[in-house]
Amino acid sequence: MTNKPTGIDRIENARKKRTRRNWLLSTPALIVLICAASGPLLIVLAYSLLSAGEYGGVTWSFSTDAWFNVVFHRDIFDETIGLADAHLLIFWRSVKLSFFTTLTTLAIGFPTAYFIATRNRKTRSMWLFLITVPFWTNLLIRTFAILEVIRNEGLINTALRALEIIHEPIQMLYTDFAIMVGMTYVFLPLMVLPLYASMERLDFNLIEAAYDLYATRYQVLRRVIVPLVKPGIIAGSILVFIPSLGAFVTPRVLGGGKKMMLGNLIELQFGAGRNWPLGAALSITLLGIVMIALVAYLRSTQRSSGGRR
Amino acid sequence: MTHSDDLQEEKTGSGLKSAIHAQRMTKIFGSGKDQVIALDDVSLSIQENEFFTLLGPSGCGKTTLLRLIAGFDHPTAGLIKLQGKDISHLPPYRRSVNTVFQSYALFPHMTVAKNISFGLEMLGKPKSAIADTVDRMLALVKMEALRNRRIDQLSGGQQQRVALARALAPQPRVLLLDEPLAALDYKLRKEMQFELKRLQHETGITFIFVTHDQEEALTMSDRIAVMNAGRILQIGTPREIYNHPVERFVADFIGNTNFLSAKVVSAAKGRVRLRLFTGKEIETALPVGMAPQGSVTAVVRPEYSLIFADGAVAGAGELSGRLVNIVYFGTDTHYYIRLPDETLFVTRSQNQREDAEAFHIGQSVGVSFKPNAIQVLRD
Amino acid sequence: MTVSGPKGKPFSIKKQPGFGFVAVFCFVMLYAPIFTLIVYSFNAGKYISIWEGFSLQWYVSAWNNEAVQDAAIRSLVLALQASAYSTVLATMAALGTTRTRSFRGLTAIYVLINQPLMVPEIVTAVALLTFFAIIKTATGYQGLAYLVLAHTAFCIPFAYLPIRARLEGMDLILETAAADLYAPPWKTFRHITLPLLWPGIIAGAMLAFVISLDDVVITEFVKSSGQETLPTYMLGQLRRVISPEINAISTALLSLSILVVSAFFFFNRKFGK
Q1: Which pLDDT does position A1 carry in this prediction?
Q2: Structural domains in chain B, sorted by start
Q3: Subunits adjacent to chain C (3 or more Cβ pairs under 8 Å)
Q4: pTM, to two decimals
C-alpha cells in the first residue's frame, strides 16, 4: 500500500484549518475574560506582596507584611508576635457557617429533591419551575426577605408576640444564626438541583429489588438510595460550600458590622481598613481554599467513576 | 496486500466512459496501534445510468467509500473521477453528487417544499425554475399533497421520499444512497425498492446504493460490488455473483450454499475436473483467470442439486448420505443430508403439487448436481 | 357475589416517610419570605407588623424617587449591553468549542470560559477593583465602560452554557446534508446552523440579562461613586432606615426576573430536545 503524500497532507491541512477557525471564534470571548476576569487575579497576587498606601491603594515597595498579617499580629508596642485573633475568628466563623449551611441545605434539600424526582412527569416540571424561580431572583432581595422575617419587628417576632407566646422580641438578627439562616435560604436551590439531577436517573427497579429482599424503608434509603445519588450529594455540597465561604452580601445584611465573614473582612481592607495588600492576600487565601475544594471534588468524581474516564 | 486491479477494475481503460471512477482509494482512521483501515486500496468503475450496489456486512467500508465519493471525508490515498474529471480535491458543495442519508437528515425547520428546493436555491437557480422543479419532484415521489407539511409531521416512508426528492432535484450526475431503506418496515421496503428502480430508469441518473441486505442487492442492482474488511471481493451482475462466486466470503454472504472440499485432477480451456472426497469425479466450468491446483473448496447451491432415493440407480449422483431433516417452506422444501464425512448438505426442491412427502427422515438418499452447478472458489 | 380486594393503599416503593412533609415545608419556606415582601410592598403603613390597608404609595414614591430612577435606568442599560455583548461572544466561543474534535488548548479554553463560575465573586470583585483603579489613575476615565466590561465578562459563561447545550443536540449530519446540496460553509451557517441554534441563543441572552441585572458584589466594587444600579442602591439603603420603598423595588425586580425565567422555561419546552 503506497501512501500518496497528498492524501495525508489534505487531511492534515483540513485539521489545521479547523483548529485555526476554532481559535478565531473563541478568541474574542477569551480576550474579554482575560481582561476582566482571569488577568486581574495576577494583579491581586502582585498587590499582596506590596505595602499599603496611606489613603488606600498600594505603594511600590515589596513587602511580605500582608501575608504575615493574614494569620499573625505584631503588637505595635512591644513587638511580640501573636496570632491575629480577630482574623482567625473570622476564618473560623466562615468555615463553621459554611459547613453548617451545607449540612442544613442537605438535610432540607435531600427530601425535597427526592419529592420532585418522584412526582409524575407532568407535575414534575411545575415543581422544578417552582424551585428554580427563587434561584434567579436577586440575592439581595432574598436576603432582604429573610431580614424582614427575622428582625425584631419582622414576621416571626410579630406573629409570636401576637400569639402571646413571647412578650419581648427574640433577637435573631445580627447573630451567626441569622447569617446561617440567610445562607441556607439563599443557597437551597443550589443543593436541590444537582441532587434532583442525580435522583432523576435513579433506577427504581433497584429499589423494588431491595424491598423484594426484605429491606425496610430506612435501609433502602441508607443502603440503596444514598449511595446511588452520592455524586449529586457531593456536587450540591460543593455548590453550596464554596459560595458560602466567599459570602459577602448575606453576612453584611444579616450580620451587621459585627459578625464578619471572610468576604466582609476582605471588603473592609478596601474600604475603611485601607490595607489593600492585606485584602489582596486574604482574597488569594480564599481563592486557594476554593481551588483545593474544587480539586478534591474533581478527584472524587474521577475516582468514583472508576479512575480516568 | 493483493492488488485486485486486474480482477476487479472494469475494462473501461482509465475510466473514460464511467460515471464514477475510484482509483486505489484508501482510508485509514487513527494512527499507530489503534488505526483502523476502513478502505484498503479499493478501485472500481461505475457506468452511466447504472444501478450499482455496494454490498457487505457492517464495517466493511461501503459507507466510508460512499462518503469519500460524496466528499464528506478525505481519502488517505487514492483519487476519484466524476465523468473523467478529478474531483478528489473538491469539497462536497462543488461535486455534482447528491446523497440520500440513512437518517434522511431532513431540515426540521423547513417544509417539504423548502427542503426539496434547498439545493437549487444554493445553486442560485431562478425562482420560476425552482418552482417548476419542486412540482416535478413532488409528482415524481407522489407527495404533491404534502407540499407544505413540516418534517416532524411526516411518517418514516414519507420522509424517505422527501429525502429522495431533495437529492434528485438538483439533477446530480450521480445519486448516492446510504442504506436508505433500513428504517422501513418490510412491506414499505419492498414498495420502495420497486420505486427506486423505477426512479433510476426514469431519471437515467447513476445510482450508487449501499446495503447489507443481499436480497435487496440481488433484486435491485445492475451490478454489485461485494465488500468485506475494506476490500472489494467481487464485482459482477447479480447472476454472476450468485452463480459464480469467486471467494468463500461471497459464496457464504449471498444466499445459502454448500461447501465441499475437492482435489483438482485437471484444468484446461475453461473447464476443470474435480475429485470429491467420495472419489467421484465431476467436470465443471471454470471462471476466467482461475488456475486452481491441488486442494480447493467448491460450492454448490441447494437449488442446483437434486435429491433422490438411494439405491434407485447404483452409482448415480455425486453424493450420498442419510436424510436427517426436512423443512417445509410452502413454496419449496429443504432437505438436510448428513454426508459420510459428518458435514451437512442442504438441497432444495420446489414443491410441484400437493404430494405426500416422498422422503422420510432416516432414509438413505443420494444427491446429484445439475450441470456446471459446482463452482470452484479461489483460495 | 362481589369480590373485594385488599384494603388500604398499595405499597409505594417511592415513598419515604417524612420526605413529603419536609419537601412541602421547604417550598413554603422558600416562598413565604418572598410573599411577605410582596404583600408588604402594598402596605399602606410603614411597618411590617401593622397592616394598614392596601396602597400603591410605595410604588409611586419609588417611581418618583430620582435616585431610584437613575439606578433603574443604569441597571437596564448595563444589563442590555452586557447581555448583548456576552451572547455574541459566547455564541462564537460555543461554535468554536462544540461538535469538534479535541484540539490542543481546548481544555484551557473551557477553564477560562467557566472561570467566573468557579472563582468566588468577591475575589473577582477585588481583582477588578485593583485593575480598574490602575486604569482610572492612568486615564482619568470614570464612565460606565468598566461596569459593562465586568458584566460582559461574568455573563459569558451563563450565555455559553445553554448555547452549547443546544448546539450539542444538533446533529452535524444536517450541516453535512447542506454541504451535499451545494451550500458553502457560510450559507450552511446562515440557513441551517443559525436558525436551529436561535432558541439557545435567546435562552443564553435571557440568562445573561437576569444575571447582570441581579449582580451585587462585583458592581459594588467596580462602580465609581454615584454610579448606582438597583441592587447597589438597595444595598446602600439597607444600612439606613428600611422603608417599604425597598419592598416595592424588590417586587418590581422580582416580577421582571420571574417573567424572564418563565420565558426561558417556555422556550426550552417548545424547542427542547
Answers
A1: 45
A2: 5-248 (3.40.50.300), 256-376 (2.40.50.140)
A3: A, B
A4: 0.82
